Amino acid sequence: QVQLVESGGGLVKPGGSLRLSCAASGFTFSDYYMSWIRQAPGKGLEWVSYISSGGTTIYYADSVRGRFTISRDNAKNSLYLQMNSLRAEDTAVYYCARVPRPDLYAFDIWGQGATVTVSS
Amino acid sequence: QSALTQPASVSGSPGQSITISCTGTSSDIGSYNLVSWYQQHPGKAPKVILYEVIKRPSGVSNRFSGSKSGNTASLTISGLQAEDEADYYCCSYAGFYIPYVFGTGTKVTVL
Questions:
Q1: Which residues contact residue B17 at a Cβ distance below 8 angstroms, ignoring those fewer than 6 apart?
Q2: Is residue B16 within 8 Å of B76, Cβ to Cβ?
Q3: Contact yes or no for A79/A66 (Cβ under 8 A)
Q4: Distance (Å, rounded) from C-alpha B105 to C-alpha B47?
Q5: In this structure, are residues B101 and B2 in contact, taking their beta carbons and an 8 Å threshold?
Q6: Tell me: the pLDDT tens digits for A72-110?
Q7: How far is CA B100 from the centre of its chain?
Q8: Using the beta-carbon criterion (under 8 Å), do A106 and B36 form an inter-chain contact?
Q9: FRET partner for A18 with CA separation of 20 to 30 A, picked from A74, B16, B23, B31?
Q10: Distance between CA atoms of residues A81 and A48, nearest Å
């Protein structure tokens, strides 16, 4: 069964750090580009970051560039998002999602989401 | 990169057809046939229902169809059913360094 499972969410103070993980199963993780997408409470979807299958190509949304770092460990079938200098506006459910083909620019498999709350 | 513009809400009766618009710019929707649509039920993760403007993933009902004209993409749901009540988001490729931009989202209500 193709599946993505996020973990690592929680409550953190402004300025703090958190690392999200996304465990992939049921498919050859190393073949796929991956992304993080977030959704603030009651708001819409916002693309956060994207990493190529080998980890050599990485992009970030302007809102997180310089504070967040995406990475992956293909040997562990895992995707990560290191979030530093967190702000209240980073409060959201964070989803990891699979890109079915590099030229497709869509997301075919989503995790259930990890909740990040930034509050003092 | 600004979010794509969608109507906040659209409603229809069972059996009717509704259309949700998604307006971007010549830098995103207008330049690429790389628009996807997602359905999200409350408390659930989004699910892709269309990609590359008109293509449906396996298992998605053919009641969902897509189109594009200029800088605007559209999602049509025909034969509206109670289970279609959800939030819908469009997404477009937007260029090399900011590859994705989502729409503002549309809440579909089945009357």
A1: B76, B77, B78, B79, B80
A2: no
A3: no
A4: 14
A5: yes
A6: 999 999 999 999 999 999 999 999 999 998 888 899 999
A7: 14
A8: yes
A9: A74
A10: 10
Cβ A110–B47 below 8 Å, yes or no? yes
The answer to whether A111 and A22 are in contact (CB under 8 A) is yes
Please indicate if any CB of chain B lies within 8 Å of the CB of A47: yes
Task: Express each pLDDT in A44-76 by its tens digit.
Answer: 999 999 999 999 999 999 999 999 999 999 999
Q: Nearest by CB to B100, which of A62, A100, A105?
A: A105
User: In this structure, what token pair is assigned to residue B88?
Assistant: 């819908």
Minimal Cβ distance to A112: which of B1, B45, B57: B45
- What is chain B's pLDDT, residue by residue, as a tens digit (111 residues)? 789 999 999 999 999 999 999 999 999 999 999 999 999 999 999 999 999 999 999 999 999 999 999 999 999 999 999 999 999 999 999 988 888 999 999 999 999
Residues in chain B whose beta carbon is closer than 8 A to a beta carbon of chain A? 1, 3, 32, 34, 36, 38, 40, 45-48, 51-52, 57, 89, 91-93, 97-105
Is A106's Cβ below 8 Å from some Cβ in B? yes
Distance from CA of A12 to the nearest CA of B (A): 22
Q: A110 and B45 in contact (C-beta within 8 Å)? A: yes
